Amino acid sequence: SSCGSLPVCPSRTFSTESRPQTSLSFGVRLVEAMTAGVDASRMQNMLQTLQSADPQIDSIVAFSKFVVAYLLQQDGANPGWRKANIEGPVYLVRRRVAPRYQLMVKNQFSTNDLLDNLHADWELDCQKNYVFYKVEDPQKKIRGLWFHDDNERLRIEAMIENTLREVRKGGVEGGMEMPMGLAPPTEDSVTVSTAGVKSAIRALADDENFISVLMQKLRENQRASG
Questions:
Q1: Which phi-psi region, left, alpha or beta, contains residue 147 (left: φ > 0; alpha: ψ -120 to 50)?
Q2: Which residues contact 95 (CB under 8 A, 6 or more apart)?
Q3: What is the pTM of this model?
């Protein structure tokens, strides 16, 4: 069968069992945010724009500035991948109420966005420049997202996989360790700001135990490199 516009055919058998397990710690999430090239003020603006359409969104878990959406046509004389006429930024968002996580592509051409609720029965399959996923509804076509930069694809793929594991464990109330976006502070969440980071660093600098451990590590590294 034909793959339409796509250069390669994804596997028709979706399986995530062999995918490497990715555990994203708080520190890694900060690196994710920085490597995504999105500063806090821009992220806040994007969050507010999304909230204007859906006030229940409380944070942006992951973001990439541009993807092209495809749908897998499996019926008819010429099955294969077809452009969905949806192109634009992709967001993985967390909501205050069910459905707790959504993946959306905001269409730059019209108000016809791609919006899917993450579900435990999703199947994910990825290859270079593409993320493919099969939603829980068998009546819906398999989706494909094309990324110009494969590093962006890898980053978003890891975030989706991590979120799906949380959903499958039934741990969506606890959620991710630290969303990439800015969530309203609760007992279980932390809002990171420049002033807060500076304050924390100053506090550590005044902590003799921390300085002692840091100096010990520096000496060990110096001996190892020497």
A1: beta
A2: 54, 56, 57, 58, 101, 102
A3: 0.64
